[in-house]
Amino acid sequence: MDLGIAGKTAIVCAASKGLGKACAVSLARNGVTLVINARTKETLEATAEEIRKSTGVKVTAIAGDVTTDAGREALLKACPAPDILINNAGGPPPGDFHDWGREQWIGAVESNMLTPILLIKAVIDGMVARKFGRIVNITSSAVKAPIDVLGLSNGARSGLTGFVAGLARAPGFANSNVTVNNVLPGAFDTDRFRGVLAGQAKKSGKPAQELFEARMKHIPAGRPGEPNEFGEFCAFVCSQQAAYITGQNLLIDGGAYPGTY
Questions:
Q1: Residue 41 scores a pLDDT above 80
Q2: Cα(67)–Cα(130) distance, rounded to whole angstroms?
């Protein structure tokens, strides 16, 4: 399927590896020019070069912490008028809420709620003026089915979810061909997923492999998702064909969520 986005320009945050990288790769394969961001310059530059060689598209790498004013300023200076914005940031660490103070909560909200909102604010009016815009926030399946050890993520990402629900339906956006959606990953085979498992293994004293196998029993697909599956879905949400999808929380979890709705 031709997604109709060749020649568009996208900002992809936290794109050096994992789900962010997968989204960047899928967009590039569809002819989208990329401006990618991550904190570690060497890893980011390596990803940029890999995408350039495999797809032939222009990729600009802007290393920096997008959760800071300086990081966002550098990113937006490199790409002030994106057609597509993929908001993504590493989730807060797992743990027990008794151990979290104000500093940990503020950090989670800065990374997983306020940073996406500030980037949306910076680019959405330009999208409206150009009559095309696709904003995708990579959040978590925990928004629908909270995970007890990920309380920081549950709280901060739910705040973003509530904001997007109102924004996407506000006058002037959807009828200007500008959509705002959240894509909610379940268990995907990423460093983040493995890291959470390792943390749980350390806390419980059980082998990580045992915890992994137990987790897979609760996923009808019987396996973690592959990052490229997520990337391809994200690219479709950014497509011309997805213009009628907005304000949604799109769950991609191998069937793990047990609800009807």
A1: yes
A2: 27
Confirm if 89 and 13 have CB atoms less than 8 A apart: yes
Query: Who's near 63: CB < 8 A, 6+ residues apart?
Result: 37, 38, 39, 40, 41, 44, 45
Number of CB atoms found within 10 A of residue 138's CB? 25
CA within 13 Å, CB half, 168: 21
Q: What is the 3-state secondary structure (H, E, C) of 73-133?
A: HHHHHHCCCCCEEEECCCCCCCCCHHHCCHHHHHHHHHHHHHHHHHHHHHHHHHHHHHCCE
Handedness of CA 17, 23, 29, 35 (dihedral sign): negative
Task: Quote the CA–CA distance of 230 and 12 in Å, as a whole number.
Answer: 14
pLDDT band at 64 (very low <50, low <70, confident <90, very high): very high
Separation of alpha carbons 150 and 187, rounded Å: 13
pTM for this prediction: 0.94
